[in-house]
Automatic annotation (TrEMBL):
The keyword Cytoplasm applies. Residues 31-60 are annotated as: NMP. It comes from Galactobacter valiniphilus. Signal peptide: none annotated. Keywords: ATP-binding, Cytoplasm, Kinase, Nucleotide biosynthesis, Nucleotide-binding, Transferase. This is Adenylate kinase. Its main location: cytoplasm. GO terms for molecular function: AMP kinase activity; ATP binding. ATP binds at residues 11-16, 128, 173. AMP binds at residues 32, 37, 58-60, 86-89, 93, 134, 145. It comes from the Bacteria. It catalyses: AMP + ATP = 2 ADP. The keyword rRNA-binding does not apply. Catalyzes the reversible transfer of the terminal phosphate group between ATP and AMP. Plays an important role in cellular energy homeostasis and in adenine nucleotide metabolism. The lineage of its organism: Bacteria, Bacillati, Actinomycetota, Actinomycetes, Micrococcales.
Amino acid sequence: MTRLLIVGPPGSGKGTQAARITDSLGVVAISTGDIFRANVKEMTPLGVEAKQYMDAGDYVPDSVTNAMVRDRLAQSDVAEGFLLDGYPRTVAQVAELDDILASNGQNLDAVVLLTADEDELVARLLKRAQIEGRADDTEDVIRHRLSVYREQTQDVVAAYRERGLVREVDGLGELEDVTSRILTALRQDA
Ligand code: AMP
């Protein structure tokens, strides 16, 4: 299991789990959001282009995002495997990733889908907002963000479910427990 995607709702600890899994499996973590943010910070041409969309809360256009992912997946450190986080986000990006992998003679091994009870996520995110002083993160705003996530991911998840690639893992509980659940799920045959 070396070519993986991770999908999970806000508040599910997806980023933390991604780091722990990649450490454990010895593969590279690739987060498109992180790459964009790093480019914005460095004010690279890619960052300047992406920023306007990110600031507006929109997706960066596929032409930009796909080219960036294609470049990243062509780098030598990815040879042992990768865990993609934040891509693909649309059905068109699913097709693009298929094409990128096919041209590298590769396949996707599995998609980790972190699940969590929505009320539990709301409670978590409200607590986090309180600790971090994010007064704008009201329950309504948080519930809206979760419904946007659900809408945006459902087609991508459905596409991979059809291929039998999705491994659903309960994302609630202790950090260590969730990590070992994910690793166990990846060890099992699909
Ligand atoms: P994230 O941290 O994954 O939420 O990504 C932050 C921002 O980067 C998003 O709001 C988008 O503007 C952009 N972004 C990240 N991944 C993608 C993607 N796969 N397609 C388009 N835009 C993306």
